[in-house]
Design goal:
- The chain has nine helices and eleven strands.
- The protein folds into two domains: about 170 residues, P-loop containing nucleotide triphosphate hydrolases (Rossmann fold, 3-Layer(aba) Sandwich); about 60 residues, no CATH class.
- The strands form three sheets. Strands 5-6-7-3-8-9 form a six-stranded mixed beta sheet, sandwiched between helices. A three-stranded antiparallel beta sheet has the order 2-1-4, with helices on one face. Strands 10-11 form a two-stranded antiparallel ribbon.
- The longest helix has 18 residues.
Amino acid sequence: MTGGVPSLIDLKDIDLAYNGQTILEHVSLSVGPKEIVTLIGPNGCGKTTLIRVLLGLVRPDAGQVKRREGLTLGYVPQKISIEPSLPLTVRRFVALGGVRDVTRIEEALAHVGADHLADAQANRLSGGEFQRVALARAIARRPDLLVLDEPAQGVDVQGQVEFYRLLRHLRDQLGCGIFLVSHDLHFVMAATDQVICLNKHVCCAGQPEVVQKHPEFLHLFGPQAAREIAVYSHDHDHAHGLGGEVVAPEEGGA
């Protein structure tokens, strides 16, 4: 339950081990409707494994995963590889996510500001363009919960700022919950409702301004990280296109 509203998904006391090595220990979390929850933690802390549990791809050794009845998931993995020689338009790439309705595909591309790329070759897109197209493929399913694993990896700083702004826009427009794994502490702290810090177990969780002062967060990331994060804002009177170029706000797609 989140503020009296039934959660989209609840994980309770999840345990998981491989070859006798603990991967996850007593992990509990929930994501509510229209809530952005971000999972952070050092390398090897179990973030990707936790996502697989959440998606139902891995069964935990102990604990419960409870999904709202009829829950629809949209997923953007950490990496998507396309054979360079494969002729694949953006429209077709989005359709491969399981949605064949052309109207829904075009709507999804428009939501992320990439509708003009529908006939472009997917393997020729820039990093920022492909990032948005992959997101369009996930939201074309009209998910109740959008799950993203390091979605801004390999994108420049300005692209990351715009991407996290886009996520908030999608949350507001589509009404979906968002569960996101990231190491971009500066940006997620400004773009998320709840932060969960993982190191095989949940070290701390709560609103960003609370987590960044928590002793466990400071132990994992150091006091310098908290000082740098303090208030990260990017207020300006312009927007950026998919390639990072400055455009009028109404053209920014977010």
